[in-house]
Amino acid sequence: MLSISLCMIVKDEEEVLAGCLESVQNLVDEIIIVDTGSTDKTKEIASRFTSSIYDFEWVNDFSAARNYSFSKATCDYIMWLDADDVLLPKDQAALRDLWSGIGDDVDVVSMYYHTALDEAGRPLFLYRRNRIVKRSKNFRWRGAVHEYLEFGGNIVASEIAVTHRKSEKSHILSDRNLRIYESYVASGRELTPRDMFYYANELKDHGKLEKAKSYYMDFLRSKQGWVEDNIRACQYLADCCKATGDTEAYRMHLFRSFQYDRPRPEFCCFIGDFFTEEENYDAGVYWYRQALDYEGKELPGFSVPAYTTWYPYVQLTLCYSRLGLMEQAKAAHSQAVTYHPDHPSVQHNAAFFEKLRL
C-alpha cells in the first residue's frame, strides 16, 4: 500500500494536539512535527507519537514553515492537518477504505473541511481542501499568511471530512495576522490581490470597518481574485455596510456578487430577508425559492448548509403565512422539519400550526 507522511506545523498546541494525532496515527506511516516556538508541552505531547520533531524559527511566513515540514517527509504521499483538526471515526474508516484501493496515478486527494458543527454534529460551514498530495510532485505552499497549496494533476474529490475542533484559545481573537499585514504596509511592501482580501478580513474582524471596506474595494477592482474570494468580498463588504447603517450599499454589494457566478444560496437568503423585513413577502418567496435551487447539490467554494435546507423553508413558512397561503406555508414547514426539527423557529411554527389545527 502507498505510504503517507503526516506533516504539521505547531506552536503552543498542548490543548488539542493529542486529540489530532490520536485520530490519525493509525492511518499514516510517519508523523512530522515542525514546532515554530512552543513554550508549553506541545513537543512533549508530540514525542508520544513521533520522534520526527523539528524546530523552525518563526519568520512571519506560514508557507515557509509548511514547506519545511513537507521537506522532511519520506513517504509516497503527504497529508497535512492543523493541530485543532481531527478525523472523526466515520472519516477514519472512509480514509482507510479509500487508501486501500488508491493508485499511484492519483496526485491529490481533496476532503471536506467542517469548520463548525451544530449540537447534533451537523456541519454549519464547510468547503473542500486538498489534504493529501503526491510527494514526488513537489507541490509548494504560497503566501505568508492564509497560505495555499499549489496543486494539479489527477485529483480525487473524496467524501472524507476533516473536522475543526475549537480550542479555548481559538475563542480569543488573535491580532497576529493583522500585525503581519500591517508590517507589510508599513514597510512599503506591495500587497497582492489575495493579500488585500485577507488583510480586509482581518480589519473587518477587528472592527476597522471603513478601512476594511477600502481594501475589499481595492481587491475587487484588481480583477485578479479567485471567484470564491470575489464573492466573499461582496458578502463581507455588505456586512461592513450593514454594520455601519448603510442599507443601500448593503443591498448593492449583495447583488454585486452575481456578476461573478450564479446567485449563491446565502445571498438569495440575505436578499430574501431584506424584502421580508420590508414586508414584501412575494419578493421574499422568490428569493428563498432561488436559494433552494441548490438543495441537495454540492456547492462550489464555501457552503453553509442552512441556506439550502431548513432556513429558506422557515422563511417561506413566514412569507406564505403572511400572504394568507396557509397550505403552502404548512408544506414549507414540513420540509423545514425534515432538516432541523429541534430548531426554535421550527418548533415555534409547529406550535402555530397545531393551534390552527393545520
TrEMBL record:
Give GO terms: molecular function aspect only: transferase activity
List the keywords (alphabetical): Transferase
Instruction: Please name one Pfam family that this protein belongs to.
Output: Glycos_transf_2
Tell me the domain of life: Bacteria
Tell me the ranges covered by the Glycosyltransferase 2-like domain, including all copies.
Answer: 5-127
Entry protein name: Glycosyltransferase involved in cell wall bisynthesis
Species of origin reads Terribacillus aidingensis
